[in-house]
Design a protein that fits this description.
Length: about 450
């Protein structure tokens, strides 16, 4: 792609950027400048409304994030150097970011496209137990429960908690084995679901660069899958992540990168979180030449992205970027609630509705029970997440705001109680791979509640 021609320049900046102590970068560059930009650009969180309807503020937020991106650049932890770009260089790169991408192949090929604020076209739906470990013997049925859902456009692999019963050790041969075992099990699940050419997000069982470089080579994951590179919070990278980038560019693979800014951390509250998120989305393009740009701002205690200030920040940052860039913007749903709880479904509804009306191109998830409990995942919540995204496509931000406020009121007091729910065999029949009656009933009831609130399910 045209945006992926800058690899040597990126590596040069990695090697030759100015040196800075990491703590000074955190405090003097990030923490010191974010509140100044919030004030300068008049970014204000309205606690009474969770879906922004102020286009002018969304545009000011983009300018604030752009200025933050120029000030901070990206810090490389491996060699303590800053990768810096001027404002004009950033703007020149942004305009060549791809507005669509083909993933998967054959009858499972899917085109993801950028979306505008209040775009009537549905977002791409990514299903899967992202960030959650699974017992080896449950990987195939769990993954099949996601892939078999017709609303699933593409799937993301889960993470193995062992490989052939052995402990997975980072940067060891066992980690490489885990990457390959993930390939085998996930592709088997796709074949059983009749969708073996569906695009797969990978390599999830990779703490280091080794499994990515190995399992996305010949015979493993394919160029038609989508491959992940993280940005370390806040605005940081390292040689291992750049090793992944180099490999993926040289193998002509689809680069999906993500940033998970910390609410209440260096960026501060909701307004600062929105600024640092926009800066991070811009820097994903500058440092990784990414095709799709994902975010999941994270609560420091709940580890979720469903607290009201975070939901506002997600919508704000997506609107800022969708109004001012050609980026395909992705949002991961990361609720506290787990399978078998209504809390999970309410949290999904709030994030999916806000993201969709704000212009998100892709909804990812669900990272049920914030990925903390092995096997606390199922395909039903991903179906629900996708159905909300489809239903919210085309409604107004004002409509979405009223629904989201009602939904958030149903779950916000439960977040501290950590309703992690049940594991997969407790909510799904392992023979039929259908939801058990209790879980199906909760889904039906919450969907009916949302319909009565005005969510236009078809």
């Amino acid at each position: 792609m045209r945006n992926a021609a800058r690899l040597v320049d990126i590596l040069d900046r990695m090697e030759n950027g100015p040196i800075m102590v990491e703590n000074e970068y955190d405090m003097k560059v990030i923490a010191a400048n974010v509140p100044k930009l919030v004030k300068k650009y008049e970014i204000k969180f309205d606690g009474e409304n969770l879906v922004n309807t102020d286009d002018a503020m969304a545009d000011r937020l983009f300018e604030a994030g752009l200025e933050m991106a120029e000030l901070a650049g990206v810090y490389c932890q491996t060699n303590s150097r800053r990768m810096l770009w001027s404002k004009q260089e950033i703007l020149d790169v942004i305009k060549w970011a791809p507005p669509e991408v083909k993933i998967g192949s054959g009858h499972d090929e899917h085109v993801e496209y950028r979306r505008d604020v209040e775009d009537p076209r549905p977002p791409t739906i990514v299903s899967g137990p992202i960030g959650t470990t699974m017992q080896e013997e449950l990987v195939i049925p769990i993954m099949q429960s996601y892939i078999q859902e017709p609303i699933t456009d593409t799937v993301i692999a889960g993470t193995l908690d062992s490989v052939y019963g052995r402990e997975i050790r980072t940067k060891s041969p066992w980690e490489i084995m885990a990457g390959w075992h993930e390939v085998e099990l996930t592709m088997t699940a796709a074949k059983r679901a009749g969708r073996e050419s569906i695009a797969i997000g990978c390599v999830e069982s990779a703490n280091s660069d080794l499994p990515e470089l190995s399992a996305s080579s010949y015979g493993g994951y394919r160029p038609t899958d989508w491959h992940h590179i993280a940005m370390i919070s806040e605005l940081k990278t390292d040689f291992q992540l750049l090793n992944k980038l180099t490999h993926l560019v040289k193998t002509d693979s689809i680069v999906h990168s993500f940033a998970n800014p910390i609410f209440g951390g260096l960026a501060g509250g909701a307004e600062g979180l929105a600024v640092i998120t926009v800066a991070a989305l811009i820097m994903l393009q500058m440092a990784y030449m990414t095709t799709t740009h994902s975010q999941c701002p994270t609560h420091p205690f709940h580890l979720s992205n469903t607290a009201p200030p975070i939901i506002w920040s997600i919508g704000m940052s997506v609107q800022a970027m969708s109004r001012n860039t050609p980026f395909m913007l992705d949002v991961l749903t990361s609720p506290v609630g787990g399978p078998g709880t209504k809390t999970l479904l309410y949290e999904c509804a709030a994030v999916a509705a806000t993201s969709t009306v704000s212009g998100a191109a892709r909804l990812i998830g669900v990272r049920s029970a914030v990925g903390k409990i092995s096997g606390h995942v199922s395909g039903l919540e991903a179906r629900f997440n996708g159905e909300v995204g489809h239903a919210a496509a085309g409604i107004s931000r004002e409509q979405a705001n009223e629904i989201v406020k009602e939904v958030v009121a149903k779950y916000k007091d439960f977040l501290d109680k950590e309703p992690y729910g049940k594991n997969f065999p407790e909510v799904y029949d392992l023979h039929t791979l259908k939801p058990k009656e209790e879980w199906q009933k909760m889904y039906d009831e919450v969907k009916e509640e949302l319909f009565k609130l005005g969510m236009p399910f078809k």
